[in-house]
Design brief:
The complex is a heterodimer of chains A (571) and B (611). By secondary structure, chain A is α+β, with helices and mostly antiparallel strands. Helices cover 21% and strands 26% of the residues of chain A. Chain A has ten helices and 23 strands. Chain B has four domains: 271 residues, 3-Layer(aba) Sandwich (Aminopeptidase), CATH 3.40.630.10; 131 residues, no CATH class; 47 residues, no CATH class; 103 residues, Sandwich (Immunoglobulin-like). The chains are: A alpha+beta (571), B alpha+beta (611).
């Protein structure tokens, strides 16, 4: 049951500010503008067409409104099947309004493909890793963010109607783009009893009046009307099902976690993407890009979860370096921001064994208008901040981020004014700042890809210790900063551990070599020819085998996430 | 096929009979049915009454079996529905028969489908249910979802073996110096843990029957499957139990059930046939960590903002008061907002108000059983499991959730304490058998032809050497002999039909119009709930589930105070709620008032304005 009571028609489609639709989409892609949903799709197709050998373009699933969710795989088949290599997963725009997250994904793809064969570092990660890129998770959200009237914060969720105000109607009182400019800005009304007056320095800003002062304005909130006549404005808009609270791990119902949806993975896109990731058990690192605050967030997302120190250390390898690549960001467990349940990063880590990061892109503090951007404002109060942001808008964004106040005749309030920050402001960098943002953040993904485990195996000692018996020592070494398995995956028996299998000869005894110098070994009681292991960040694991027989002995290392390897020795 | 034919014939005969006479004629074919038989039965029932019944295949199990719901009731109007699920764990075939029996009763008598729709799911876990019908039975509860229980290199490589060839997987006991079990000196069939406090030393190790197929030192640790549907729902999901899967709804049966139910907002009550019994004992209370019943600590990041004391525990109402001054006036501070902001986690204990109707109906059920001359001195029902369907239905769907174990073993009459005191106590203090063990042994002897317990017998095991195999057979405590099916169902199922009459019945009770002068009237409307159950339940109010009832005034009415659409809010069983508006209208005008609900349908009333 859906009721849309739209008194003001929203049929006028306003060309979106900053969206491309300005010329052909070609390789290399451009990052000085935002791509609409259709353009993101086109950009992916163009990339795939330009690099058919290295890429695969798939439809992961369809959204509630039937839009396709695309995944681009970058893998060099000449160096092996994608499933045999450590997988790097990158997505963005799970919240419909957080569009530059999609641009980071596109940029990462564009970077890998256009510099493959030219830049050694990039050539290496394309050859050794499989890259899975889903630029837009919430495809309906991105579509509607561009085409409909929105605030910078609206259109976050999936298109699943919900009765937010408890009147048994669904989504019947959304914002209304009264002035038809594609943005939902603020409404203010002249009011001598109001709590606000115009800032003497910048008349666009409203500041609180002091108790003894006369007011000039009352703020009426976001642009809209009381569509359902219940005395509240804009209180039952689209959704709300937050695709980033709808994942399976530690899912909690809506009264505990707002936006959770009715049950885990009830969102079509979340379900489809989970199936996609399940089919790629080689994924070991995952990035999900969002758009606010400048943060690298890791698990856990709620306070009761204990994190194994080895996993924290592995996260730190990426997180602490990332801080230097993206100055101004913080790196912290997402619980430190606020607790969440059913979030994607926890699902990735605790269900799929993937080291997962949330990248919160963009810090609005970068919108400065002062001589030394690194030097803080002398008086950093709210009004000063607003004045500076408006000057930034005027001088650097040529007025594109702010809608000047204009008179409007409101059906309920009468003569009012509408104006304020437009939807493409506040959480989105102006396109002139986009290239640096996408490059820095994609560089962090690249760093993580470089750090996916590479396990080197060597037989480092063979000693004859009996008539027909050899003592053989094998070393597995991880050259990189991410372990072959998370400690949590080992502890919770999430999936089969890495294995070292010995073929040929009879393994009389075999086990972990704890200390080669003092000959300390823990032998595995049963089936010594298969040893279970994982190799930590920059870690070393050694085994000792007592092998009866002669001839060629093969040691095979197999792992769900690290690339397998083998070694031979002749006894 | 023959059995099915009988069923269908019975069916037509029964159709002519009133429900009370069913006890004599039998409501099932007196046997347990496999999923393919269940599917055929459902199809035949449906075909016999195509206008009344619909089948919905809501999922396909990992083993390729259909999961089917039968919809009963052809009301054209919106009406409340009851969802009935049975045998979620797959090891209680009797519960499936109960669901089929209930479907037949409903088809045969129209009185319980007037204004109520039923959705009956007799077998949500068809893969596990195969266990009862297989040659070797071990009490299978998991489906065919691929789970590598021992996380080695092979899947499902170390299941049970019926070493003694009796068709049952029981236990193996083997003398072992490091064992922790001893033979009970009360009954040599029963094994008990050695008690160090009594200076006892263990003599045996216990294993399930089988061999170590994969040679890893563990016995039967990675058999077929899978996920247990009965513990895989989102409330109190047992995330550390591999047999629940990695998240609620990972397996298609659970996902399909949740989706089916949420797609039908008129589902207002849920029954579960299985091992717990909410008809007798309400959902468990006293769980620790429930944010609703214990004090709430304000998280550090809110301390300053709310001016709270970090050392103090607050009640929910106190926290709401702390929030009010700091949120914008348009925002309503609800417990839900506090739950979200503080990250408090889910409710764990049933709400006090809901326990009232559970208590009342439990008394009624006991009285009902007494009038039927039913032996209620039986082993207690199993407590509901974390992640169970019945818990989810109550805590997250927010509807009255009644579960029932259709059968339990009669208790053995307690020996008097005085006699016990007379016993010589010189020898070592004997281990007491549990009531359940006593009851099972006695039941096996007297009513199960002594076949419920496999006597310990020697066996030479390939790796363990000399062992003894024996123990209670699986399915014993929940699966009566097929001959008892009908008589048990004839007692139990009518109670579930009676319960359906306790659903809320919400309608206009009265109204009052007071003229205040100059065309202004105070309009008071009284809405009553004639049912015994509230709407929604107290937990449902928190869940905002199911959809609210709304009173709608027609468009022409000029409302001075109040809303055109007024949510009714929670209304208790047999209670009346008053709603008030201030309106301005001409005298003698008629206003139209609608009571609107996606659960109960709509009711419209014309009210004439007169001084």
């Amino acid at each position: 049951m859906r009721y849309y009571i739209l008194i003001f028609t929203l049929f006028v489609i306003v060309p979106s500010l900053f969206s491309a639709e300005k010329g052909k989409i070609e390789v290399p892609l451009r990052f000085d503008r935002y791509y609409s949903y259709a353009e993101v799709t086109e950009a992916l197709q163009v990339l795939h067409k330009a690099y058919p050998e290295l890429t695969r373009l798939e439809v992961v699933g369809k959204s509630e409104e039937g839009r396709e969710i695309y995944a681009l795989t970058i893998n060099n088949p000449k160096t092996g099947n994608d499933l045999s290599k450590p997988g790097v997963y990158v997505d963005g725009n799970i919240h419909g309004n957080e569009i530059q997250a999609g641009e980071v994904c596109l940029y990462y793809a564009n970077l890998l493909l256009t510099k493959y064969g030219e830049n050694d570092k990039i050539t290496k990660v394309v050859d050794k890793n499989a890259h899975y890129i889903i630029p837009v998770v919430n495809v309906d959200g991105r579509y509607h963010f561009f085409t409909d009237g929105n605030t910078p914060h609206s259109n976050r969720g999936l298109r699943v109607p919900r009765d937010d105000d408890g009147d048994a109607l669904f989504d019947e009182d959304p914002y209304d783009d009264l002035d038809g400019d594609g943005s939902i800005t603020q409404m203010r009304i002249k009011d001598p009893l109001g709590a606000y007056k115009v800032d003497p320095e910048d008349k666009r800003i409203l500041i609180h009046v002091k108790p003894e002062e006369k007011g000039e304005f009352t703020l009426l909130g976001y642009e809209g009307i009381d569509n359902d006549n219940d005395g509240k404005l804009n209180e039952d808009g689209e959704g709300y099902l937050d695709a980033n609270r709808n994942w399976g791990y530690n899912w909690m119902p809506s009264y505990v976690q707002s936006g959770a949806g009715n049950f885990p993975l009830s969102g079509l896109g979340t379900k489809a993407i989970n199936d996609y990731i399940t089919a790629r058990p080689n994924i070991i690192i995952g990035f999900a890009f969002h758009n606010n605050g400048g943060m690298w967030l890791r698990v856990p997302s709620e306070k009761t979860t204990f994190m194994d120190p080895a996993d924290v250390a592995a996260y730190d390898v990426i997180g602490k370096e990332a801080l230097k690549i993206t100055p101004g960001y913080v790196y912290q467990p997402s619980y430190d921001l606020y607790p969440t349940y059913g979030d994607f990063d926890s699902h990735l880590f605790f269900v799929h064994g993937v080291f997962s990061f949330v990248g919160e892109l963009f810090q609005r503090e970068q919108e400065t208008y002062r001589e030394n951007a690194n030097k803080p404002q002398q008086v950093a109060d709210e009004a000063n901040l607003a004045r500076e942001q408006l000057k930034f808008n005027d001088r650097l964004a040529q007025g594109e981020l702010y809608k000047e106040w204009k008179k409007f005749k409101h059906p309920t309030y009468g003569e009012i004014e509408i104006g304020g920050w437009v939807k493409m402001s506040s959480r989105l960098p102006h396109p002139f700042m986009l290239p640096e943002l996408v490059h820095r953040n994609a560089s962090v993904v690249l760093l993580a890809a470089e750090n996916t485990p590479e396990i080197k195996m060597e037989v480092f000692e063979v000693k004859k210790i009996g008539e027909d018996l050899h003592q053989v020592r094998v070393r597995l070494q991880n050259k990189n900063g991410l372990p072959s398995m998370s400690a949590n995956a080992v502890k919770t028996k999430l999936y089969p551990q890495d294995r070292l299998k010995i073929l040929g000869g009879k393994v009389v005894a075999g086990g972990r070599l704890i200390d080669a110098r003092i000959n300390k070994v823990t032998y595995k009681e049963k089936k010594p020819e298969i040893q279970f292991l994982s190799v930590n960040s920059y870690g070393v694991v050694e085994f000792q085998f007592l092998i009866e027989g002669k001839g060629e002995i093969t040691f095979n290392y197999e792992s769900a996430k690290a690339k397998g390897t083998s070694a031979q020795v002749k006894l | 096929m023959y059995n099915n034919l009988i069923t269908v014939v019975c069916f037509f005969l029964l159709h002519l009979l009133p429900i009370s006479s069913m006890a004599q004629s039998g409501i099932t074919s007196g046997k347990y049915h496999t999923n393919s038989e269940v599917q055929q039965l459902l199809l035949k029932i449906q075909e016999s009454h195509p206008s009344l019944l619909k089948l919905h295949t809501i999922a396909t199990s990992p083993g390729g079996e259909a999961v089917t719901v039968i919809e009963i009731g052809n009301s054209k109007e919106v009406c409340p529905a009851i969802f009935v699920g049975a045998n979620f764990e797959g090891d209680i075939p009797f519960a499936t028969e109960g669901a089929l029996g209930l479907a037949k009763m409903l088809v045969d008598s129209a009185q319980y489908t007037v204004g109520i729709k039923w959705y009956i799911l007799p077998l949500p876990n068809p893969d596990a249910s195969k266990g009862y019908f297989s040659k070797i039975r071990y009490g299978r509860k998991v489906n065919d979802f691929p789970i590598n229980n021992d996380v080695d290199e092979a899947l499902n490589e170390d299941g049970f073996e019926d070493l003694n060839g009796d068709g049952w997987i029981t236990r193996m006991r083997v003398k072992d110096l490091t064992g922790s079990w001893i033979v009970s000196n009360k009954d040599p069939r029963i094994m008990v843990m050695a008690d160090v406090k009594k200076n006892e030393r263990g003599e045996y190790k216990l294993y399930s029957e089988g061999i170590d197929n994969d040679g890893d030192g563990e016995y039967n640790e990675d058999g077929e499957g899978g996920i247990n549907i009965g513990i895989a729902f989102p409330h109190l999901f047992p995330k550390n139990n591999k047999e629940a899967g990695l998240w609620p709804g990972q397996t298609p049966e659970v996902y399909g059930i949740m989706k089916f139910i949420y797609d039908r907002p008129n589902i207002a009550m849920v029954y579960t046939l299985g091992s717990s019994n909410f008809c007798l004992t309400p959902p468990k209370t006293g769980r620790k960590g429930d944010p609703g019943s214990e004090g709430i600590k304000v998280p550090p990041r809110f301390i300053n903002q709310l001016g709270a004391d970090p050392a103090r525990s607050y009640t929910m109402n106190e926290v709401i008061e702390l929030f009010k001054p700091v949120v914008p006036s348009q925002v309503e501070v609800t417990p839900s907002l506090v739950y979200n902001y503080f990250g408090l986690g889910a409710a764990l204990n049933p709400m006090e108000d809901d326990l009232k109707f559970y208590a009342r109906l439990s008394d009624d059920y006991k009285k009902y059983l007494k009038t039927k001359g039913f032996n209620t001195e039986t082993v207690d029902p199993s407590p509901e499991k974390d992640g169970s369907f019945e818990l989810w239905a109550y805590f997250q769907l927010g509807v009255p959730s009644f579960s029932m174990n259709l059968f339990s073993i009669p208790k053995v009459k307690e020996e008097k304490k005085s006699e016990k005191a007379d016993e010589p106590t010189v020898k070592k203090e004997g281990e007491e058998l549990t009531d359940k063990e006593k009851a099972l042994l006695s039941y096996s002897e007297r009513e199960y032809d002594k076949k419920g317990f496999i006597p310990w017998q020697k066996y030479t095991h390939p790796t363990l050497g000399e062992v003894e195999i024996g123990g209670f057979i699986p399915y014993l405590e929940s699966t009566p002999k097929p001959g008892m099916i009908d008589s048990l169902l004839n007692v139990q199922l009518p109670w579930l039909l009676q319960l359906s009459k306790k659903l809320p019945v919400i309608s206009f009770a009265s109204n009052k119009i007071t003229a205040l002068g100059a065309g202004v009237y105070k309009f008071e409307l009284f809405i009553e709930n004639k049912g015994l159950l509230p709407y929604p339940t107290a937990i449902g109010e928190r869940d905002k589930q199911p959809a609210p009832l709304v009173v709608v005034l027609d468009n022409d009415t000029e409302i001075l105070e109040g809303l055109k659409r007024t949510p009714l809010g929670r209304i208790g069983g047999n209670q009346v709620k008053k709603l008030t508006w201030l309106i301005k209208t001409a005298q003698n005008k008629t206003i139209t008032v609608k009571l609107e609900s996606t659960v109960f349908g709509n009711e419209v009333k014309q009210i004439k304005i007169a001084d």
